[in-house]
């Protein structure tokens, strides 16, 4: 009876982690869109999120250091500038453009367009030789591209400016995740833990977006009654409080993704991501009044087929080809980072040994 009980417990744990991931991922999408209706300063909002994430990651590192008694990694300036900074710049532009686009487009169009990031991740993973080319990738590209075209074709709520921002964010996101994978898989840097990675990325991300904020929003924000020209401390604290909620959601999203993959697998996260997009579109239509035609829904289905095919291919090749990153990790201190939707091999250990498996780290 012990085995069925253990299986049931693991199933409940997986469902709980998936729901936690959904709460933070879907929550931050709708929250940012809701906040942008009245607060038209997406770059300032992103800067607040970055500052809060840096504080939370620093606090978490301190707690981990007190708990384990081991000091956390701090990179030298050479490694920081040449290896961390490029990743931080790409990450800042991806997040900044994504938040900026909420001023112009619906959640439906944002979700669908951001899904095209898989194409750019594939492209840059081939450039950096992190993925082996195979003929099925052409079909994946065609499905996702045609699905995106069908979704945006004659859309009643289409906005070219917002669509361009999200598409640029998806393109930069391909660079971001590829560089992040390279960064976190270098054992000599010691950034396998996502908290350490977040701690090192946030300062450069803040400095990257700050000039754009000064150019686009600083003057308007300085005369806004929501912040700097508030009639009293109450409106100012009210604005900062709601901005901070988004920062907490962003920090929770990173942790929920890490926990989901560490306790289950990257395949679970990939499949959960597909259903998450479906839930996002359904909620956007029900709560936000997003309008979608039959052609738009068909395009979304075609795009999901392309993403699902990519996930299936990753699972197949990880089972039938040479040693995976996960297998190699048993011989080296490097941890697998399945950012490119790579999926680890089937677990051959018994249920009692599952708790001792190496952790996989995924940032989505």
Provide structural commentary:
By secondary structure, the chain is mainly alpha-helical. The chain has one domain (26-345). 72% of the residues lie in helices and 0% in strands. The chain contains 13 helices and no strands. The chain has helices at residues 2-36, 42-68, 77-101, 107-114, 117-127, 136-152, 160-184, 194-216, 218-222, 233-263, 266-287, 294-320, 325-329. It starts with a helix and ends in a 35-residue tail after the last helix. 42% of the residues are buried.
Notable features of this structure?
364 residues; 13 helices
Q: Topology as H/E string?
A: HHHHHHHHHHHHH
User: Count of helices?
Assistant: 13
Question: What is the count of structural domains?
Answer: 1
- Sheet of most strands: none
Shape descriptor reads: globular
Give the assembly state of these chains: single chain
- Gap between N and C termini: 37 Å
Alpha-carbon Rg, integer: 21 Å
Number of strands: 0
